Amino acid sequence: MKKAVVFDLDGTLSDSVLSIAYCANRALQKYGLQTFDTKRYQYFVGDGAAELIRRTLANQETDRSDLYEEVKAEYDKLFAVDCMYQVKPYAGIPELLSELKGRGIRVAVLSNKPHPNTCKVIHDLFGDAVFDVIQGQTPEINQKPSPDGVFLIAAALGIAVEELLYVGDTNTDMQTGKNAGAFTVGVLWGFRDRKELEENHADAIIARPLELLDYL
Question: Alpha-carbon dihedral of residues 132, 23, 87, 153, nearest 10 degrees?
Fold first, then answer.
């Protein structure tokens, strides 16, 4: 029996792509650059803010990576204010979390979103009494797909990695779980599709949150 579930945040717990697109597009506009629709951002995200901005600049008509420092700084400033813009939990997530807590299963978050923003999103969407560990991106921990965050969470919970499920919606998430030696569950309500999850060797794939209970 599993003792804990570690969730990715964006695209797994929270439907947040609009907030990311809103801030990134305004940062690009400031420098006269092309903006992108929300669908494109579903493929720009997943590997941290730095990689997000690099992808938006590489996908201009002419690569504008020379503006990385300026655009990244503007994005960080905007996102610090508007990280909750139109963000909401996915349907079924509150019910899943309630069921997990009722069964005595510990729950944690591991995100490549900066740690203060990760904490704010969790606080605003779920309050402070649900998650046992919240870990966003910090300079001290290698970001996903490094397994460092999973190891840190397992240690904080006092369990072995084999006793947890790692749940996410992207190739980065499946690689993170695999790198840690955890059982990985890919979700289909997030930013990516079944093909990406299968190609990155998800141990299970679910279409609705409560299906996760079958793997405890």
Answer: -10
